[in-house]
Specification:
Layout: H1 2-26, H2 32-56, H3 59-84, H4 96-117, H5 140-188, H6 190-194, H7 198-206, H8 211-228, H9 230-249, H10 263-286, E1 312-316, E2 319-322, H11 323-334, H12 338-348
Antiparallel strand pairs: 1-2
Amino acid sequence: MRRRQVEFGRVSTLILAAAGAMSQVAVLKVPVQYKTGVSFFGLCSIGSVPFVKKWLLNENEIKNMVRSFTTSQAIKAEVYKFRAQATPYTTAKANPKGTLELFQQRCQKLSNNARQYDRKFDLMLQDSKPPPPAGVLNTVDGYIERRLDKQINNIYRKKGITMARRNAFCTYSEMCLLGLAFIAGVSQNEIVSQKLPGVVNKLVGKCSGWGAACTATSGSFGSHIAAQKFTEISHRYFGAAENLQNVKDNWPCDATTSGSADWDNCVTECEDIIRSTVDYFAVTKSADDDMKLSQPSTKKDLEDMVWNPNIVLGTDDSGFYPAVDRMKYLIDTKSLTEEQAKKKVMMEYPENF
């Protein structure tokens, strides 16, 4: 619901700004009896934009919405890992009670962390789809059908197509408006317009005076495209779908059930891809590089962690990146020593060490 409110606010801002710009020109062209109404409509449209931004596009509210969304996705991921008996729930068969307690603690930590920032977290709508039943996700067929195929086909590819279509619509609208603005500019040039054929000259003449409005509206579309980042998000969704498909296609033959060879590595690899996509959404929508909440907070002491440079932390455009790459990045960009960089990486991803 809150995500829809934010989307509604951004679209409403675009429409109101466009309506206000067009009304300023239209008031000069409509008959006298309509001028007052058109002028009032234009003023109301422009005057409504600040209120829409304040109530629907408040920066803190957007961050809280993103925080709650990513937390809900993180809890969902915990459910799937718990049902698949993957890290950190690999002891489910040997110690079912202890594993269940660990699952409850991790989910509670995630929820408590979100409640600290967002008072509306507990008001989020409950997922209408039932959670995966026990005894299904801990087999390769069940995990692929209930987790991977749904993420690939029902979420990533569908959302990727939707974002690509929105980008195409806004881009074409922006280009058409700029074209109309150009035509309007031509109509103002008497020397050029006189050389045009009669029919074309008449059509161009009808655009006279609309140049500024078309330019302003195209600018609104351009700002909307930049804010929404349709292309980047679309590419990210398609990339995540491709990465999951690759894992699915190359799933080891002996990783058939939980506890078998390579099972934990395959499930963890899939969940890392999904987690990194959620993190990317959080950073993109909130414009905050620290907005990564898809892992539960932990009180694990640094002294208890063991450095492993080959542990996969997530994915980027080039594929999977291990801990050593993150360490080198911190050394190069943050001027940290190797030991400081290792500690920072382990504190950023405590569950991996």
